[in-house]
């Protein structure tokens, strides 16, 4: 019986993988200009890393993690997101003491047991950035600007929403106000939200349940409860985003699906994706490094969902490219093999048809491969030491006398 991919998991094969490559290249080129360095982190970690960072009462931890016990009895989770591992690595390698500030990026698969639909998979790819060690609002603005730049470079239309969710000194006041308000509406909340109301009422704001969403429309607004420090920080971020000409709107109900955020949070959305509209999201998480056992270090970051971006971008128009070597006869074939080797050593993309089919079938192959040039090498060419050279763009065929000239023409 045929075995297929597990539900919610997809192969990314050509030509779709070309989009993936384009997104990754664009992401890397953009973040390199801001000094981000690559980290390659494990895809599985101790469960505790995620329960302590993402949060016990989040959907991710409560319902979406892939968990298993390894043969040594360790409790393991496939990573549902990248920030927790990045922070763990930052602490584990003592980076705090080595660098004034640190900028890292990662690209890789994440795993969440969610209901699969367009733009929502159980294994999906994120490209993310983290900045450790800067508390200034300028770094929030710079990071958001850079994220916008990545999407602009990919020619994606987006909207940006931002909010501030305060810090440990002001959020408790808001939580109290929120619990007071939500308690009066408790019967309209889903069971999950009823359960987490007292411990983590902010989760209600992120609930996807229709009724909960209705209730959330009338809750107190978090930015009215910010302390002076958080308020100033947020105002400065807003001012700097304007200076950097980033368009955004304020969404005072946005809290994000992970517990570690403080102060600034943001989401980039596309209106062309239906329900799965968020394509890139992140925020500041000034307490997380300390909470995971490191020195107190301010930090912020974002992650971009590559599958959702793949749904939005066009495949780049592929120009004809490369040389197809079409050979006839044994001598021609041997000469063709050698020529292919020489061209490849010159970094020229070269194909040769080992099946040595008819003239017509070889040209058909060259066209299907979208090659730019065909070099024909048959007995006549070998004996008289020349190449027949055809450009598939113009259809023009000509005689070329030497290898040097051939290389120059390509
Ligand atoms: P959503 O609200 O859509 O579930 P989220 O708040 O869970 O998103 P984050 O954890 O912030 O998302 O992840 C950042 C980005 O990763 C999302 O904006 C999205 O583009 C992408 N992403 C998250 N979950 C999935 C998934 N299951 N499949 C594909 N992409 C995803
Ligand atoms: Mg989610």
Task: Kindly describe this structure.
This protein has 410 residues and is α+β, with helices and mostly antiparallel strands. It folds into two domains: 16-170 and 226-312, Bira Bifunctional Protein, Domain 2 (BirA Bifunctional Protein, domain 2, 2-Layer Sandwich); 323-409, Anticodon-binding domain (Rossmann fold), CATH 3.40.50. The protein is 38% helix and 20% strand. It is built from 16 helices and 16 strands. It has helices spanning 16-32, 47-53, 59-64, 83-92, 137-153, 171-183, 191-196, 202-205, 210-216, 228-243, 288-291, 306-312, 329-345, 359-368, 379-384, 403-409, and strands at 37-38, 44-46, 67-69, 75-78, 102-111, 123-132, 159-164, 249-250, 262-269, 278-284, 299-305, 323-327, 350-352, 373-377, 387-391, 397-400. An eight-stranded mixed β-sheet has the order 1-5-6-11-10-9-7-8, sandwiched between helices. The chain has a five-stranded mixed β-sheet with strand order 13-12-14-15-16, sandwiched between helices. Helix 1 runs antiparallel to helix 5 (137-153) and helix 5 (137-153) packs parallel to helix 10 (228-243). The longest helix has 17 residues, at 16-32. It starts with 15 loop residues before the first helix and ends with a helix. Bound molecules: adenosine-5'-triphosphate and magnesium ion (MG). Residues 81, 112, 114, 119-121, 124, 126, 257, 276, 278-281, 303, 305, 307-308 line the site of adenosine-5'-triphosphate.
